[in-house]
Amino acid sequence: MANGVKAAWAAGKPVVNGWLAIPHGFTAEVMAQAGWDSLTVDIQHGVQDYMSMVACFQGMQPHGVTPMVRVPWNEPGIIGKVLDGGAKGVICPMVNTESEARALVSYCRYPPKGSRSFGPIRSGIYGAAADTNAANDDVLVIPMIETKTALDNLEAIVNVPGVDAIYIGPSDLSLSLGMAPLQDRREPEFLAVLDKIRTTAQAAGVKVGIHTMTGQYSKEMFERGFNLATIMNDSGLMLTAAKAQVAVARG
Known about the structure:
This protein is α/β, with parallel strands linked by helices and 251 residues long. The chain contains 12 helices and 8 strands. Strands 1-2-3-4-5-6-7-8 form an 8-stranded parallel barrel, surrounded by 7 helices. The chain starts with a helix and ends with a helix.
């Protein structure tokens, strides 16, 4: 299955990304029918693990949505396993330096471009398992920018060969800047930081994504030139919709 996120970007289209915190294939199957371009299994926060990630991939597989993963950390073991499981993109938290970005790229790429170990047990079912060059071209490498240190090193990070996109974590970035860990911020000073990140990345040919809480804020980010936006997560969307309907019923 081709990488639909890459195809959307090549066509100049923004990507609407869903986020899976619930560790169940049925939830992923339901979410995959909502019109998302991609769905990201979050095994950093939330309650997902490796086996629930595989179940989520199986649930979304028939619906053509691109599977991605946020890994717990910049560590080659788990990164290799999520790729072997079928992830088309790796979002990695707390990438703060050029050397950390280079390591992330290496973990996601087979030699000679990286150090990924060969063993695509599940992902090989859905493609030419021995075509390591195709795998290198297909996988998206997406470090997260979420600290002041990362901002200070941003130009070096986005110019690392093999970095396809960056992903802004607004809560951790807010904390690092001395603010409350909130999302969907509209303070002019924070929007200026977002714009600086975007322009710096895009000048290097790197796409930019951000986590949001609403479709409206995602739309605003697309209008600012962002290339990907995530809307909340499955558990948050379920709770939000449930609360709204309960409130209607109670009058």
